[in-house]
Structures are given as structure tokens and as C-alpha cells.
Amino acid sequence: MQIADDDDLTAGDRKIALLVIEDDENISTAIQEYFSRAGYSVTTAEDGVAGVQAALNERPDAVVLDLMLPKMDGLAVCRELREKAAYIPILMLTAKDDVVDKVLGLEMGADDYITKPFSLRELEARIKSVLRRVRAASRSESGNEDAPITRGKLRIDPAKREVTVGERLVELTPKEFELLRLFATNPGRVFPRKYLLEKIWDYSYEGYDRTIDSHINRLRSKIEENPENPQMVLTVWGIGYKFNDER
């Protein structure tokens, strides 16, 4: 997936494709009309099942996903998309100003969230921010943006956004990829949870530590031989996490 520059609403030689999964017709229509005028290509779906099908069939550049949906709720949609189309950025809409809903959305793999009611300008700014972060995540922390990173059996190819452990190809979500690359490019460095939340999610609020832990657990389940006894991504008790500098 190619992501546009900040002020360029194209992805390669086409418009940015936005999928809106929202059952409120007024909200869906307002988003569609606003972003169509702004130069996006917009598709809509009215329930969770149709939304999953549209996302998998059309592979949009970003998804705007309502939390409360008929047939399949937003959390279930997010979970399924992360399993089948891990790289698609997801911005979740919620009608509740509830930390629990926001944390659950982030734990399921949402890249950002916005609480209703919201302004369409704010929604556009959030979507641009998510797309910008995804583009930035494809660049290496080092001066050589495309240089593969090898740590023992682990190999990360930023140019292809591919991760392999030995001969096994590992499918990671955008946040899992960002976390792993950050760790692997800085072996031995301890990253506090607060730093990871600000660096990877762009949040600075307290109470979101569980989001970090959930992503680390899922990352370990994909790359570690024994996730219960991790050898790559290590816990530094009371602080955060680090990549094993002995590998």
C-alpha cells in the first residue's frame, strides 16, 4: 500500500480509498460527501458483516469504523480485519466518551479513535495523521530507510514491511510492526510503557498501559517460540519492555 504525502490526496496514481462502516445514514452520508469533496474515493457499508467484506474485497487505504453496528459490532470487525488484512489503518468511532471503549478498541488493533459528536475537519485530521504514521512506519529508524534488520532468526524488511522468523513469514498489524522494529533497532534499550504509547499511538493519557501489554502479548505469540518464556521481547518489570541485546 502506498500512502500519499501530507497534502497530496493520492496513493500512487489514484485517490486515497476510504471505507466508512457506519449504520447511521446521516453520519455516513455526511462523511461520504465531505471526503468525496476533499478528493477521497469513499465507499460505505451499513453493518459489520458488509464492512468486513468490503474491506477485504476493496482493500482501502483506511477504514472509519463505528463501534456500534448491526450484525457484527465494531470490535469484532476490527478483530477480523486485523487477522485477515492486518495492514489496513482503522479509525474507530464511538458514541461513548468511555475510556473502557477506547482501550478495547486500541487493544483490538484500532490505530486511533474519535468520540461522537465530532467535526468532519477533526475526522479528516485524524485520518491524515493515521496515514502519515503508517507511511512513517515504513521508514527505518536508521539513516538507511530500507535496510533489513536481522536479530538471530528474526528478519525485518522495512521496504517490504515483511517479518520472518527463520523460514516462517509472520503477519503483523501496523502497530505490532512498529513496536517490533523499534525494539529490534534498539536492542537492550528499555522502553517505558508511557514512551511506547506516545511514540507508537501518539497518546499521552494515563490508564492505557493495558493496550501496550495486549499488543506485546500478541506480538510475542507471533514471533516467539514459547510466548510464555519470551527470548526476544523481554519485560523489564515495573518499567516496560526491551529487545534482548544478547541475540
What does this structure look like?
- This protein is α/β, with parallel strands linked by helices and about 250 residues long.
- It has two domains: about 130 residues, Rossmann fold; about 100 residues, Winged helix-like DNA-binding domain superfamily/Winged helix DNA-binding domain (Arc Repressor Mutant, subunit A, Orthogonal Bundle), CATH 1.10.10.
- The protein has eight helices and 14 strands.
- Strands 4-3-5-6-7 form a five-stranded parallel sheet, with helices on both faces. Strands 8-9-10-11 form a four-stranded antiparallel sheet, covered by helices on one side.
Write the layout of secondary structure elements.
Blueprint: E1 10-11, E2 14-15, E3 17-21, H1 25-37, E4 41-45, H2 48-58, E5 62-66, H3 74-84, E6 90-94, H4 99-107, E7 112-115, H5 120-137, E8 149-151, E9 154-157, E10 162-165, E11 168-170, H6 174-184, E12 191-192, H7 193-201, H8 209-223, E13 233-236, E14 240-243
Parallel strand pairs: 3-4, 3-5, 5-6, 6-7
Antiparallel strand pairs: 1-2, 8-9, 9-10, 10-11, 12-14, 13-14
Helix pairs in contact: 2-3, 4-8, 6-8, 7-8
Give short descriptive properties of this protein.
alpha/beta, four-stranded antiparallel sheet, five-stranded parallel sheet
What is the overall silhouette? globular
Low-confidence runs: 1-7
H/E series: EEEHEHEHEHEHEEEEHEHHEE
CA-based gyration radius: 18 Å
Domains, number = 2
Largest sheet: 5 strands, parallel
Q: Would you identify the CATH architecture of the largest domain?
A: 3-Layer(aba) Sandwich
Span between N and C termini? 31 Å
Count of strand segments: 14
Mean pLDDT: 83
Alpha-beta content class: alpha/beta
Helix fraction, binned, reads 25-40%
In what order do the strands lie side by side in the largest sheet?
Answer: 4-3-5-6-7
CATH topology of the largest domain: Rossmann fold
User: What proportion strand?
Assistant: 15-25%
CATH class descriptor name of the largest domain: Alpha Beta
What's the name of the CATH homologous superfamily of the largest domain? Response regulator
Helix count equals 8
